[in-house]
Structure formats: C-alpha cells, structure tokens
Amino acid sequence: MKRLTALAFALAATLAAVPAFAQDTLAKIKEKGVLTVGVKNDYKPWGFLDPSGKIVGLEIDLAQEVAAKIGVKLEMVPVIAANRIEFLRQGRIDMILATLGDTAERRKQIGMIEPNYYAGATNVLAPKSAGLKKWEDLKGRKVCAVQGAYYNRRVSQMYAPEMVVFPSVPDGLNALLGNNCVAFLFDDTLIVSTLSGGDPKWANYEMPLVSEDPQLWAIGVRLDDLDGPFGKLVKEMSVDWHKSGKLLALETKWGIKQSPYLIETNKKLKGGS
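Above: the chain sequence. Below: its structure as tokens.
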C-alpha cells in the first residue's frame, strides 16, 4: 500500500512538472485567439520591415495563412538564430517560421515540419558584366568564398574555379566589390537578400546561375506538437502549399528566382495525387 501511495505521488509530481504547452497547443491557440510565431524582420524578402515598419515577406504570408486556417489573430515575435529555438522551447512562441535550417542536431531539440517549405542552395553573386551563364563558366576564374562553407569543396571539385577564401561574408563581398574575383560563392538566400536590399552598390550585380545543392528549411514546432493536432495541421498545410503551387507563386510575388527544390517538390506531390 505504501509503495502504491509513493508511486501515486511520483506520478503526480511528474505530471505537475510537464509544461503547460505540452498539452494540446492547437486547442490553447484557439482558446487565446492568437497564434504567436517567431519570424525574421531583417532578412528580405522572407521577413523584413517595410517603409511603414510593418513586418512583411514570404514567410510572413505563410504565418498569416496558418493563423487564418485556425481562425485566430497572428502575433509576430522577431527572432534571430541565437534565440529562436529557445523561444519555442520556453513557450514564448508557438512556431518558428524564420529561415530555420533543418539539421539532425536541431531535430533533437524541436520538431521539424515536413515537407520542408523551402530550401536555400548554392549560387554566386557576380557583376552583370561578367557574363556568367552556367557553372562551368567559373573554371579557372577567381571566385571569392567564405572559409569553412560546406559547398566550397563541392564547387571546387565539380567546376574547378580558383577559390579565394576569406574569413567572413563582409570580407568576401568587399573583395568582390574590389574586383578581386569574378563572383562570390554563397547561399542563394543571402544573395537574394543582398540584391533586394536596395543598396545602390549592388545595382549592377546579379545571381546568374541555377542554384544547386539545396539546404532544407523547416517550420519549427515543439517536439510534443510534431505528431499532435497542431503539427498535423501545419504538415497538411505544407503539403498543400507545395501541391497547389502556392510557394512558387509566393516566390514570384516577392521577386525570388524559382527554387529547384520547390519545382521538384511541386511536381512530385502533384504526380502522387
């Protein structure tokens, strides 16, 4: 009897220690009438401040769709790479929609919604006068890159440019502006963000190649929600965004060159319907 009583107390203590957000998050969102989403406000055109100070962008459009589907208001909380996962785990936000790379390490901490809604990939920033049309055009030419970037080795092996490696992104971009290389190799989302930022020094530059080697992005939810009602709803919406061409349409809306990953996933899901 004493043993059963002790077990009962232990169970009660365990349940008391479970955070409130481990319960049905979808029901709690409906109850409070607000979906709180962690978003970027400095990464144009995915999430950024318009002239009026309002946060807008491709990811913001998706967050608004989720809120509308649930039938609640959207509250946006600006996040950065250093705090977005902690904000989610602490219950300060219900979901991350903020250029979140999907990695095995992060999957140990939070749930990643599949299918992934986007993917960054490898491309180059180059002056329009360089006349780059295909990756093979880089052969034997100086290409600026950032030390330690995962795609440096692949590009070197496949296209044989003369890699000029710098310790940071600003160093590489400054070298490009100084005509020390024909192109700057990096993630295409940063290149798009740079080109769309309105800085006149990039007016005569472009991202001329077809992006390769995608790095998947995911909507992040708490691990407890991944297979629960909230996670299932967002998964269903992600499938529909791909299948219907919604994500491709949003790329066009925000002036983003069409992602090979989105094109491939759209065809795959439409073919499986």
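The radius of gyration is 22 Å.
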